[in-house]
Amino acid sequence: MTDDSTETVAVLNTTSAVGIGVCFLLAVVALFALPTLERQGIGFETAFWMVSAVELVTALGIIYFVLNLHEEPE
Amino acid sequence: MDPTVLQAGFDLLGDGRPETLWLGIGTLFMLIGTFYFIVKGWGVTDKDAREYYAITILVPGIATAAYLSMFFGVGLTEVEVVGRGTLDIYYARYADWLFTTPLLLLDLALLAKVDRVSIGTLIGVDALMIVTGLIGALSKTMLARYTWWLFSTIAMIVVLYFLATSLRSAAKERGPEVASTFNTLTALVLILWTAYPILWIIGTEGAGVVGLGVETLLFMVLDVTAKVGFGFILLRSRAIMGDTEVPEPSAGEASAAD
């Protein structure tokens, strides 16, 4: 993909970029976590809702961080 | 009707699950889509385009993990349903949707440039749609399953209505390039998302008209198109570039781009 050379490069907000990465990793781990949670003695439905909650919260986290992905101009 | 009337697939792992063929293909398509978007977006400096790339890469990224977990049987459980016996439920599918559908809607909301309250409302109803679907998937009587399916479908209709009306109007105000891309993506979402509850109700979790193999194949096609296809259309559009009023390319520029 090419960009016009006239545009200014937006400054990334490092916290948001890291936040997106962390949320994504958490969401991936959660997808594989249910059998481990069950082995810890947690019932299927409880473990299932825990995994679902992690997916939703990480998605909301990513939305927040994407909306704040760049530093506001001074 | 016997849920195995229509069955398809190939048991790749030798664990008695012919649907692993479709889950494996789904994993591969999602992975290819993720890497394609990463390569395409590498070095992009435009502020708005970066946001679209970030969202659009994460969608097939998480779907790759979800499909891999279903392929290896991690994202699978059994639910005892009165009158139907034991159903195989790929719960990772729902977890995937909880993560990806808000992000797909965020792409559309950013394209239409609506305010954060509208984004919150849209994503709130979307979460309701998936959560009620989840409750339905785990319910142990068919009446409860169909009732939650109905709630989920109503929530989906609200989301689609919101897309086709207020977001569409907002996108139209941003110029022809944005309006055209938004309309194409919304049409894709309207068609594909409508197919999900239909497939659910005729699939093994609903009436059981089609078997798990065909159901998994069709969900895979829907998922790949709704995530990778959606991203492909969005990211090749000039509408994602910073300014709303992107000038039309001249004939020379257009042919050079090809």
Detailed description of the structure:
The complex is a heterodimer of chains A (74) and B (258). Chain A is an all-alpha fold and 74 residues long. Chain A has helices at residues 14-31, 34-39, 44-67. Chain B contains eight helices and two strands, in the order ααββαααααα. Chain B has helices at residues 20-41, 47-71, 91-112, 116-138, 142-172, 176-202, 212-235, 251-257; strands at residues 77-81, 85-89. In chain B, helix 1 packs antiparallel against helix 2, helix 2 packs antiparallel against helix 3 and helix 2 runs antiparallel to helix 7 (212-235). The chains are: A mainly alpha (74), B mainly alpha (258). At the A-B interface, helix 1 and helix 3 of A face helix 2, helix 3 and helix 4 of B.
What layout of secondary structure does this protein have?
The complex is a heterodimer of chains A (74) and B (258).
Chain A: H1 14-31, H2 34-39, H3 44-67
Helix pairs in contact in A: 1-3
Chain B: H1 20-41, H2 47-71, E1 77-81, E2 85-89, H3 91-112, H4 116-138, H5 142-172, H6 176-202, H7 212-235, H8 251-257
Based on helices, strands and strand pairing, what is the structural class of chain A? Answer: mainly alpha
Oligomer state of the chains in this structure: heterodimer
Main structural class of chain B? mainly alpha
Poorly predicted ranges of chain A: 1-5
Distance between the termini of chain A: 28 Å
Q: Return the average pLDDT of chain A rounded to an integer.
A: 88
Largest interface: A-B, 31 and 41 residues
With helices defined by DSSP (H or I, 4 residues minimum), what is the helix count of chain A?
Answer: 3
In one word, what is the shape of chain B? globular
Order of helices and strands of chain B: HHEEHHHHHH
Tell me the number of strands of chain B. Answer: 2
SSE pattern of chain A, N- to C-terminal: HHH
